[in-house]
């Protein structure tokens, strides 16, 4: 009797485990089909990935196009169109081996010739992001249909990382489609990515559908992705609640308490790789005086307090010119402790009395208002009267671009390493403040960093770069700017890359 | 009547010219420009200059205006600076959406305000009157974005009866289309309904005391025939005139409603153009709204003349 009972118990346990294991395995097996709905908080100007200026366009366009390499979940380069790659000659030559017989969505080959065409186009049509590419790239060769060779002017040991990280420009477009559509290509993107373009209804949405001829068989799982243009944060939250959105990207920190109450939704965040800053216009006296910059940007503001006020207390104080969780970040917060007395002394030494100026920001995010108001009240304590103006976004950028401002508050795109600085802080790149044009030291340090042949060397130059900028207070960094996404729980295998990309190749819907 | 219509249509020409000059100049006076806005933090003087040359923004203003106005007359409304999309194509696609939204909003407004105004006027200072006019005050006080969000929360989130936001073209699915349009139409129409109810009430109260109404009663007609056929027919004229003037406000309200409810109409198209400083987009949008405004006002005036014989006879006698 006892033996019989034991056998029954044993079989019951074994059978339960079998059923549980099988059902779990079935539940986790990706499901084919479904339409994913994602919000875009700003409408892109157009869909030509080579010249689009919005970082978030890479979210959408990164699913229509392939790149040679892209980022994985750990923000490391991972194969995309290139199956593997090799560094040669200490980093002066890079070979990328492409998947064979890949086709663009229009049926033309996505081969080495097409890759070469794309990079030749970038070099010969310099837009704002190209100067640093032209600096390093001697040429691109198509060795054979599946091998591309990049010849660099100097050794770059992380060129693969460079290609994976610098936004949407290195997506590979179909040369035939560009030739066919001409200027209209902006409305007809053609890549070789997991999804192909269906339609763009301006002001409403962009739809992409599964690419049945995608070179990685079995992917993608989704039938369609609809990118809805939703500019109002509250509408985003509402649509999550009603099930009309599955992913909300770049959720403002103010909406987090609401987003967290949406059933079956998780809020994702990651390492702090972007930051809020308050650049001073060095072309306007007295900000050309280092002592004044140190008074205002170093000792006169309490970064700890601002970090508590802004971003629901989730930000970190920041002095350095890299975000706290970026590669090669150096913690320089100790260089700028909050010290109002020292700030006052510096202003006296500089002969500045009753300083008054205007701090501007845009109305694009309430957090800038929090930061601006906090700075205003802190600077009052050191005898500086700040008039704080909240401008409409276009007006704000107009003033920044033409340098018609004294100090501004903004946040920077995600830069997981110094690579992200290249387009913006190259002498011929875009920068709306920063160091005096005649001071080439930061650029020289960045160049040394780029061509450093060992990791330790890179670390050293990164440190020097950050210390130089902080010592001269060329850039007033305030806090990190954490990135948040709201994602419904039925969205599975979603590659969260902290605002850098939104690659949906492996994503599936569990419903 | 025919001469009157032709005269009104001809007046459209100087109106359109005046508006075109005003909007052209105003957009260039507003801080920012399409290139600077498009580039944002990625602004670089050389690149900005190059892009301005490509789209002709480096030319003198008089030349820019002349080219734009000249092309406008040939039906070319230009291309969006940022996207390169043809403005005319976008306007023709989006205008019907907004017109439909406005029409639905006015239909809603009229269908609830007219009965409400009549009831309030027939039973003045009663509980019905106070109740209806209190609701009207609420409607007047609530801006569209607030009423839109409240409607969304109640009917979409809490009750789940209607979708929160979005749009399906009627050609794709008529039922889904109507479901998407109900909340935006109500949000846009509610403030108008409120004002219209008060206008109808006031107008009815005035007319009900007129001698001809008393005469109609004295003749033994039923009360509702007196109210609707005799009193209301005359009382509706001032509110009707007011409705014509509402077109501009409705477009303004439509901007907010389209953004909140994600309706891809021309109002939000124009608004986005303003934020982006996209000159061709904004200029095209304003010109279209001007034409729509003038034509709709003409139609309201003609309707007014049809309803009021005194106006018709006045024209004939003249």
User: Taking Cα atoms only, what radius of gyration of chain A do you get, to the nearest Å?
Assistant: 25 Å
Terminal residue distance of chain A: 46 Å
Number of strands of chain A: 22
Please, what is the average pLDDT of chain A?
89
Q: What overall form of chain A do the CA principal axes indicate?
A: globular
| Proportion in β-strands of chain B | under 5%
Instruction: Find the count of extended strands of chain B (DSSP E, 2+ residues).
Output: 0
Major beta sheet, strand line-up of chain A: 10-11-12-1-13-20-14
How many helix segments of chain B?
14
Fraction of helical residues of chain A: 25-40%
User: What is the averaged pLDDT score of chain B?
Assistant: 87
**Strand pairing plus helix content of chain B: what structural class?**
mainly alpha
Largest sheet of chain A: 7 strands, mixed
**C-alpha end-to-end distance of chain B:** 11 Å
Residue ranges of chain A: pLDDT <50 for 5 or more in a row?
none
User: How much β-strand is present in the residues of chain A?
Assistant: 15-25%
Oligomer: heterodimer
For the sheet with most strands of chain B, the description reads: none
Structural class from helices and strands of chain A? alpha+beta
Order of helices and strands of chain B: HHHHHHHHHHHHHH
Which chains make the largest contact? Answer: A-B, 46 and 45 residues
């Amino acid at each position: 009797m006892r033996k019989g009972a034991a056998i029954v118990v044993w079989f019951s346990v074994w059978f339960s485990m079998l059923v549980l294991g099988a059902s779990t395995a079935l539940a986790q097996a990706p499901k084919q089909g479904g339409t994913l709905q994602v919000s875009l908080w700003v409408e892109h100007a157009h869909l030509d990935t080579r010249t689009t200026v919005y970082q978030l366009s890479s979210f959408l366009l990164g699913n229509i196009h392939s790149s040679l390499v892209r980022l994985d979940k750990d923000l490391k380069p991972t194969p995309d169109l290139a199956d593997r790659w090799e560094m040669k000659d200490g980093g002066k030559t890079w070979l990328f081996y492409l998947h064979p017989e890949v086709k663009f969505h229009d049926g033309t080959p996505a081969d080495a010739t097409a890759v070469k065409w794309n990079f030749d186009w970038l070099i010969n049509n310099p837009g704002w992001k190209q100067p640093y590419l032209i600096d390093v790239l001697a040429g691109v060769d198509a060795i054979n249909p599946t091998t591309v060779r990049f010849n660099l002017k100097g050794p770059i040991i992380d060129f693969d990382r460079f290609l994976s990280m610098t936004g949407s420009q290195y997506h590979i477009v179909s040369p035939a489609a560009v030739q066919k559509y001409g200027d209209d290509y902006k409305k007809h993107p053609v890549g070789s990515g997991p999804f192909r373009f269906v339609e763009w209804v301006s002001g409403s949405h962009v739809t992409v559908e599964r690419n049945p001829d995608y070179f990685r068989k079995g992917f993608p799982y989704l039938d369609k992705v609809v990118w809805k243009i939703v500019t109002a944060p509250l509408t985003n939250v509402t649509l999550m609640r009603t099930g009309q959105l599955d992913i909300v990207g770049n959720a403002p920190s103010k909406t987090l308490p609401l987003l967290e109450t949406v059933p079956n939704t998780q809020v994702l965040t990651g390492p702090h790789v972007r930051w809020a800053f308050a650049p001073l216009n060095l072309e306007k006296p007295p900000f050309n005086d280092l002592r004044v910059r140190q008074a205002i940007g170093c000792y006169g503001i309490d970064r700890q307090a601002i970090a508590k006020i802004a971003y629901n207390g989730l930000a970190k104080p920041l002095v350095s010119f890299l975000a706290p969780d970026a590669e090669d970040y150096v913690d320089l917060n100790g260089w700028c402790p909050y010290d109002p007395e020292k700030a006052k002394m510096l202003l006296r030494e500089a002969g500045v009395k009753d300083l008054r100026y205007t701090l501007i920001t845009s109305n694009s995010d309430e957090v800038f208002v929090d930061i601006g108001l906090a700075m205003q009240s802190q600077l009052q304590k050191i005898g500086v009267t700040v008039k704080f103006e909240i401008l409409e976004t276009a007006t704000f950028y107009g003033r920044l671009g033409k340098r018609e401002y004294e100090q501004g508050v903004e946040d920077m795109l995600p830069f997981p390493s110094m690579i992200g600085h290249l387009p913006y802080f190259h002498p011929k790149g875009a920068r709306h403040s920063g160091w005096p044009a005649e001071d080439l030291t930061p650029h020289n340090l960045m160049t040394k960093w780029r061509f450093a042949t060992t990791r330790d060397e890179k670390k050293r130059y990164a440190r020097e770069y950050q210390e130089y900028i902080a010592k001269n207070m060329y850039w007033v960094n305030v806090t990190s700017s954490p990135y948040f996404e709201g994602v419904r729980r039925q969205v599975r295998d979603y590659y969260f890359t902290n605002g850098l990309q939104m690659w949906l190749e492996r994503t599936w819907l569990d419903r | 009547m025919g001469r009157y219509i032709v005269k009104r249509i001809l007046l459209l020409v100087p109106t359109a010219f005046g508006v075109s000059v005003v909007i052209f100049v105003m957009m260039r006076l507003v801080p920012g420009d399409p290139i600077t806005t498009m580039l944002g933090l990625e602004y670089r003087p050389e690149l900005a200059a190059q892009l301005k040359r490509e789209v002709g923004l480096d030319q003198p203003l008089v030349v820019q205006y002349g080219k734009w106005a000249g092309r406008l007359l040939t039906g070319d409304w230009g291309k969006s600076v940022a996207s390169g999309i043809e403005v005319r194509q976008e306007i023709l696609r989006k205008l019907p959406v907004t017109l439909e939204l406005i029409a639905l909003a006015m239909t809603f407004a009229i269908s609830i305000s007219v009965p409400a105004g009549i009831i309030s006027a027939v039973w003045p200072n009663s509980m019905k009157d106070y109740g209806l006019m209190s609701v009207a005050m609420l409607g007047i006080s609530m801006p569209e974005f607030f009423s839109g969000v409240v409607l969304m929360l109640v009917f979409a989130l809490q009750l789940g009866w209607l979708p929160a936001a979005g749009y399906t073209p009627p050609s794709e699915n008529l039922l889904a289309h109507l479901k998407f349009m109900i909340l935006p139409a109500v949000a846009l129409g509610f403030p108008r309904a409120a004002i219209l109810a008060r206008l109808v009430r006031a107008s009815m109260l005035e007319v009900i005391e007129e001698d001809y109404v008393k005469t109609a009663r004295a003749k033994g007609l039923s009360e509702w025939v007196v109210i609707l056929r005799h009193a209301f027919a005359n009382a509706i004229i001032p509110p009707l005139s007011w409705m014509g003037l509402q077109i501009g406000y409705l477009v303004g309200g439509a901007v907010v409603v389209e953004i909140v409810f994600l309706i891809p109409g021309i109002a939000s198209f124009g608004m986005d153009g303003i934020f982006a400083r996209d000159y061709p987009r904004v200029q095209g949008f304003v010109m279209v709204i001007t034409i729509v405004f003038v034509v709709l006002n003409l139609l309201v005036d003609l309707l007014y003349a049809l309803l009021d014989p005194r106006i018709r006879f006045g024209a004939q006698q003249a």
